[in-house]
Amino acid sequence: MDIKSKIESLRDDLRQHNYNYYILDNPTISDYEFDMKLKELQALEEAHPEFYDENSPTKRVGGTITKNFNTVVHDFRMYSLDNSYSKEDLMDWEKRIKKMIDGEVQYTCELKYDGASMNLTYENGKLVRAVTRGDGVQGDEVTANVKTINTVPLQLKGDYPERFDIRGEIVLPIEGFLKMNEERIANEEEPYRNPRNTASGSLKLQDSSEVAKRPLECLLYSIKGNNLNVSTQFEGLEKARAWGFKVPKEAKLVNSIDEVLDYVNYWEEHRHNLPYEIDGVVVKVNSLFQQDELGYTAKAPRWAMAYKFKAEQVSTRLNEITYQVGRTGAITPVANLEPVQLAGTIVKRASLHNADQIEKLDIREGDAVFVEKGGEIIPKIIAVDLTKRPEDSKPTVYITHCPECQTELVRPEGEAKHYCPNYNGCPPQIVGRIQHYISRKAMDIEGLGGETVALLVKESLISNYADLYELTVEQVIPLERMAEKSAENLVKGIEASRQIPFERVLFALGIRYVGETVAKKLAKHYKSIDALMFTSVLDLVTVDEIGERIAESVVEFFSSEENKTIIERLKTYGVQLEISAEKLANQTDKLKGQTFVVSGVFETISRNELKKLIEDNGGKVSSSISSKTSYVVAGDKMGPSKRTKAESLGISLLTEQEFLLLLK
Ligand code: AMP
Ligand code: ZN
Questions:
Q1: I need a labelling partner for 291 at 20 to 30 A (CA). Which of 177, 249, 573, 661 fits?
Q2: Could you tell me the domains of the chain?
Q3: 413 exposure class (CB count in 10 Å sphere: 0-12, 13-18, 19+)
Q4: The pTM is what?
């Protein structure tokens, strides 16, 4: 087979597997096999840029940077929907319809997916454009980002029209949302509020490879175009499905408003069994001919109606406010509620966030409170029912001392949270830090779980993560629920963690604000813990994306004598405290002594990859052009002021290709 056919057959193959996996939910090869094929294709495409295809399955990983999203006028206006909240509303709607058209009316009932609306344009079976709803007349073009969403086909199958638009909703399924939040919490970032905002925020990220990491989906509900050869809404859904789109199977064709109501009632009750959130049901007159007769009001089609579910809220009693101490000493107030059924689960606790929040809502123990559950992990209190406030109620006085170790709390300037400053003596901080150290993304210690860590600390067998490496099987066996075998596994697991690469060790140390990404950056820049230990805030902030807050936290961590001792001990146990030789081997000094400024948008490589290449090869990346700049790597849409500056200083501009040649 020649190269071109080989590339094309791999692309077809990968498209089919992508479809099996994401649309049919029925993969026929392992993830590993898929990755191997994708890698093979990537390698071939790299070696043969002449066969470039912007819709190749390799483009799913993203990499394009969009600085400004272009405004695009929709070919067909994207209307809003009229809302109804009751059976009566729906009956009234039916009456209005019946006045305007003769004969029987069928309805397509669909779920109202709660996400961000999207219009996709296809030409000759290829995705050419993805545009947000915007104000309905025009929206923002977000094609590069949408391409990374696996349920958006880049190449259609079967008998599709030459050109058409298709509309849908970009959603973030709940499981993926919760996972993203787990990660954020582990990295001590504020969790996202709900899947909908996270989905629509994702569409406007500048770096499409960041979008690719988010488990977004695109659920389609309507095709638009001329000469589509489709006569009903339901048929349109079926066709779209056949062309390769994800069109949820819950859509149903019914013959009367009573049946519509059955559908509404069914989904109001069963909505929590769906993998994504819905906020109601959309009812559409099925016949496109009848739709035409009915037409539009200024804002919405007359032939469709949304039925909105009531926001899920309950009232319950706030029994007690307690305070949790996290691994960094951050205090979180928690509302302990009279258990109550809400959104498919029993709710017993709600987050109160911080002291300001409690004060703002004047939340008190004994209050009747309204609790709401969006996509948040724990529900939140949205208001107090003052009419039910007990007469002897007293305002909440926020704690001044740590509930675990009685140390006086501090509230750093500009922060919403209080902290317990007793870093080395506060039990939940000690336990939390070790639990973080052993966690999956950090040292991933097999055979040791969070509860055992708590037990080990309680029994005074360990009080920091370095102590782990001195644990013996004999010490561990007497612990509750420990058998000889599990004790051995525990010690083995700890030993094995000495192979974990430096960047993850750095994350595992639990330095405040040093999440996974920051740890990677620091590891790459400083290459060893010794270099990092002796650095300064001034030097740290020169590292890409390291701000003052992180820099200060790093310096503070290493200025503690206790931490220094722990690190020295980790060294003697053989924990990886520098970048391995193997990793270093991938790096060269081809660009040593040269400083690069990267500007604009690139074709075959993302900006971050480009910067990584520069750094891996010994060059420096700087953000502004000065007389010290050796080269400016200029992509598309490079800022004109940068260009002028480079020219006036006589600094050479390199195109993407020229830069890559430099490394060859
Ligand atoms: P609203 O924003 O309340 O005016 O509702 C209109 C929006 O509902 C549309 O812009 C769509 O993004 C969204 N929507 C979700 N599911 C559907 C569906 N099945 N059919 C039509 N619109 C839907
Ligand atoms: Zn404490």
A1: 249
A2: 3-61 (1.10.287.610), 83-308 (3.30.470.30), 311-420 (2.40.50.140), 427-499 (1.10.150.20), 502-584 (1.10.150.20), 595-663 (3.40.50.10190)
A3: exposed
A4: 0.62
